[in-house]
Design goal:
- By secondary structure, the protein is an alpha/beta fold.
- The chain has 6 helices and 5 strands, in the order E-H-E-H-E-H-E-H-E-H-H.
- Helix 2 (about 45-60) packs antiparallel against helix 6.
- About 40% of the residues are buried.
- Mean pLDDT is about 95; it is low at about 160-165.
- The structure holds 4'-phosphopantetheine.
- 4'-phosphopantetheine binds near residues 9, 77, 106 and 109.
Length: about 160
């Protein structure tokens, strides 16, 4: 059974992330979406809130396909999380060339730390390539409409009070 880990901040999950999850499901038997908590980045929502939002978004949009997707949180190294889940692959999305340098550095670093874990990239679908969680948070903070950018589950939570953790 092929297992892939899709790590990220997901603060909040966007349609771009969902697209990567859906496509990873077409390649791997099981996909573990892992939300990094206690990062240096100040998150708007807690790790468990972000994970719950992803779970709802996956169930609401991917239907039966969602059964092969696990959503969890993690602290520390991505490769250790991959090992705990028995994942031989790390999945990441690439939106533009500007993502490439950081992603390449992370992939090489992870490979050095855990040679048995390989990184696989999905080109984010063109219609979602402009999306970023940072911009979604900013637009939402100023009352802008992000309904075309995030799934309903994230939209509901963006409307509620922020929390940290
Ligand atoms: O959604 P993001 O913020 O782009 O995700 C970045 C993430 C979580 C994949 C990256 O920061 C990460 O892997 N953090 C865990 C710490 C770690 O493993 N660092 C070494 C990898 S280079």
């Amino acid at each position: 059974m092929t297992v892939a880990l899709y790590p990220g901040s997901f603060d909040p999950i966007t349609y771009g992330h969902l697209d990567v999850i859906r496509r990873a499901c077409g390649v791997f038997d099981r996909v573990v979406v892992a939300v990094l908590v206690n990062t240096q980045k100040a998150a708007r929502a807690s790790g468990s809130e972000r994970a719950a939002t992803i779970r709802e978004a996956v169930d609401e949009t991917l239907g039966e396909g969602g059964a092969r997707i696990e959503v969890s949180t993690f602290e520390g190294l991505t490769v250790e999380c991959a090992r705990r889940h028995g994942a031989g692959f790390v999945v990441r999305g690439l939106r533009a060339v500007s993502d490439f340098e950081t992603e390449m550095q992370m992939a090489h670093t992870n490979r050095k730390l855990a040679p048995e874990v390989d990184t696989v990239f999905f080109m984010t679908a063109l219609e979602h390539a402009y999306l970023s969680s940072t911009l979604v948070r900013e637009i939402s903070r100023f009352g802008g409409d992000v309904s075309a950018m995030v799934p309903a589950a994230a939209l509901r939570r963006l409307g509620s009070a922020p929390s940290v953790g």
